[in-house]
Amino acid sequence: MEFLEAIDVALSHIVRWPRAGAPVPGVAQGLQVRRVPAGRFPYHVVYLETPTAVRILAVAHDRREPGYWHARTKQ
After folding, report:
1. 11: part of which helix (H) or strand (E)?
2. Domain map of the chain by residue range?
């Protein structure tokens, strides 16, 4: 339950301040892919900011299969 609450807090943060997330290295230049940590857990919510929406790409573990979600940035 604590994990889901941490994800909810991260999502609320993203909705309020979409540009406050840290840019994600290793993503195609020009894409506004950012991440917000999930509280005390070793996860980040990774999202893509577009002019009309914010798209959640992954709830990604910090150490397991890093970058597995990179293919989701292809348009």
Report:
1. helix 2-16
2. 2-73
- In terms of Cβ atoms closer than 10 Å to its own Cβ (0-12, 13-18, 19+), residue 63 is exposed
For the beta carbon of residue 74, count every other beta carbon within 10 angstroms.
7
Report pTM. 0.82
The DSSP symbol for 63 reads S
How does DSSP classify residue 52? S
Q: Is 19 helix (H, G, I), strand (E, B) or coil?
A: helix
β strands within the chain, DSSP E: 22-23, 32-37, 43-49, 54-61
Return the number of other C-beta atoms located less than 10 Å from residue 57's C-beta: 19
- Per-residue pLDDT tens, the chain, 75 aa: give them: 899 999 999 999 999 999 999 998 888 778 889 999 999 999 999 999 888 999 999 998 888 776 666 666 765
